[in-house]
Design brief:
Elements (H helix, E strand, L loop, with lengths): L2 H44 L15 H42 L2 E2 L10 E5 L2 E7 L4 E9 L6 H10 L5 E8 L6 E6 H9 L2 H6 L1 E3 L8 E5 L2 H7 L2 H9 L4 E7 L10 E7 L10 H16 L4 H46 L3 H19 L8
Antiparallel strand pairs: 1-3, 2-3, 3-4, 4-5, 5-10, 6-8, 6-9, 7-8, 9-10
Length: 373
């Protein structure tokens, strides 16, 4: 999308730079011609008395011209890249508006017009919000687009570390059985597992023959895995394998206030083919209802509940130990502060202070007497 405008900008820059060179050469020729004429007129008058000036060479403005060209190209790229990202986000809203209208009672951020349906958090980051749906507390879609407005990102980072446009969908689920699983491409699986404490605690890698070998699956139990990755889901993942990045479903999300969460990430094609990935958005909504209706067997559910209770107890013990450690450190700091203050007092003041602290300690240790009238 940004390659053609970038080429146009570079062509404009080359034209400006060439013009600057030509102007500098013309100015140099005028200066030299004028100097020759003046020398011929005054050669008989000042040849013997005035020394020849040191030739410093013609003055050129190549550096200034390059700086001006860079600034102009940077500004043009900013406005064209910003406009390209805005158009991309608006096209995504138009494509999915009917789907969202049918599924959610409230869309966007309080306004009815299309402009307010999506919030621009940065020139390359846009958010969409929906709520008012069965089995779902909220729906958030984040479009992380290329930094088309940044000339340096376009010229340098996209060439060295090219990053695609991505869509991240987070759905806060209403109710679900204890399920924790994830599906990811091999190149993303390790990073997803390491950055998700719930996956590290509750799941392990499992074989799932229905998916292509390029997929890695983590699940707490085979029963939960087979209940979620049903035929329509597997078929969609296979069909859109080149766009799919990861899927993470959990009832124990460690970072969000709503622990029951569905997280789906996929890349976006060029604007002309944006409709190709609309099925992945539909899959996320389908999974919302599917997960809400999954009922694990009593044995599997009891085992999952025991594991969560064990983790909760360990977390509580860790928090208690942390509180005790903080209290001990606080007492040590207070004692150090008192010792430093005491060291600066005279001997008489130190003695009085020690007596006062001793009396206070006796009062604390003594029995509490309640007076009754």
């Amino acid at each position: 999308m940004a390659k053609l405008p970038l080429l146009v900008l570079l062509c404009v820059g080359c034209i400006l730079l060439t013009s600057a060179h030509k102007l500098a050469d013309d100015a140099e020729a005028v200066v030299v011609s004028t100097a020759v004429d003046e020398t011929q007129e005054n050669v008989d008058l000042e040849t013997a008395s005035v020394p020849e000036p040191v030739d410093e060479g013609p003055k050129t403005y190549y550096i200034e011209a390059c700086a001006i060209v860079f600034i102009v190209v940077y500004i043009l790229q900013f406005f064209m890249g910003k406009s390209a990202n805005d158009n991309f986000a608006k096209a995504w809203v138009r494509l999915n508006k009917d789907l969202f209208t049918k599924n959610f009672a409230y869309l966007g951020f309080g306004e009815k017009d299309q402009e307010a349906l999506i919030l621009r958090e940065a020139y390359h980051c846009f958010k969409f919000y929906g709520s008012g749906r069965l089995n779902c507390d909220s729906f958030t879609a984040t479009l992380n687009l290329k930094k088309r407005q940044d000339l340096l990102s376009v010229l340098l980072f996209d060439m060295i570390w090219p990053s695609p446009d991505t869509c991240v969908i987070d759905i806060a689920l209403d109710a679900m059985d204890p399920i924790c699983l994830a599906v990811a491409k091999k190149k993303n699986a390790k990073n997803l597992h390491q950055n998700s404490p719930d996956l590290k605690i509750y799941t392990r890698q499992r074989n799932f023959a229905a998916l292509p070998p390029n997929f890695v699956v983590f699940a707490e139990s085979n029963e939960a895995l087979e209940s979620v990755l049903v035929a329509p889901i597997v078929s969609t993942l296979k069909e859109f394998e080149k766009y799919f990045v990861s899927l993470h479903i959990t009832d124990e999300h460690p970072y969000l206030p709503q622990k029951r969460n569905l997280h789906l990430e996929f890349t976006l094609p060029p604007l002309s083919k944006l409709d190709d990935v609309s099925q992945l958005t539909r899959m996320a909504l389908y999974l919302t209802d599917l997960v809400a209706n999954v009922k694990l067997s009593a044995t599997t559910k009891a085992a999952a509940d025991r594991e969560r209770l064990k983790v909760a107890e360990e977390n509580m013990k860790a928090k208690q130990a942390e509180r005790v450690e903080k209290l001990q450190q606080k007492k040590i700091d207070e004692k150090r502060k008192r010792d430093e203050e005491t060291a600066n007092l005279s001997k008489e003041a130190q003695r009085k202070r020690e007596e006062r602290e001793y009396r206070e300690s006796l009062k604390k240790k003594g029995p509490k007497v309640k007076m009754i009238r």
